[in-house]
Amino acid sequence: MAEMSHSEKESSQANTASERPVYEVGFHIVPTVAESEIGSVLEKIRAALAKGDAEIIKEEFPVKKVLAYVIERAATGKREKYSESYFGFIKFATDKEAVVEFNKALHAMNEVLRFLIIQTVREDSVAPRRAVFSSDRLEGETIKKPASAPEAVAEVSYEELNKSIDALVS
Known about the structure:
Helix 2 (38-51) packs antiparallel against helix 3 (96-108). The N and C termini lie far apart (104 Å). Helices cover 31% and strands 32% of the residues. Residues 6-15 have low confidence and may be disordered. It has a domain at 13-120: Ribosomal protein S6/Translation elongation factor EF1B (Alpha-Beta Plaits), CATH 3.30.70. The protein is elongated, with a radius of gyration of 32 Å. A hairpin with a 2-residue loop joins strand 2 (55-75) and strand 3. By secondary structure, it is α+β, with helices and mostly antiparallel strands. The protein has a four-stranded antiparallel sheet with strand order 2-3-1-4.
C-alpha cells in the first residue's frame, strides 16, 4: 500500500469536512440570564459543538426578543413563564452521530429555553437583489401620466332622463 503525502491527507480531510451535512441550531436563552453572561452561555453551546468536531460556518450572537406567545416550562419544581428571551443561531457542519450528542447537551443546559436543529445547506440564502434599471433617455425626467382627451359633455333633456328611468324601473 502506498502512503499518502501530507498534502494529500490535508486535501482528503478538507473534502470530508465539506461533505459533512450542514445543520443550523436556533436557540432561545432564558431572560433571567444576565446580559453580561450571554457570552458564557454561547461558549457552552460552542463547546458542546466542539465535542463533535463541528465546523462553525456562521453564527449570530443572541439578541433579546419579545416572544410571540408565553412559553412555560417546569424547572426546579415550579412552572416558569417567559414572554421574552435571547435568540441566536449557529450554522455548523458535523457528522450525523455528533448531532445526537449535541441535542442531548442542549437539553441538559438550564439556560437554554428552547432550541431547534435543522439540516440545511452550506451556502447563505440571502434575499434576492432588487433589479436596478437605468436608461439614458429618461435620465432626470419625471415620468408623466399620458394625457387623455376630455370627455365631451352632452346636454340631456329631462324627458329623455325620465324615459331612461322608467325603462329601468319597469
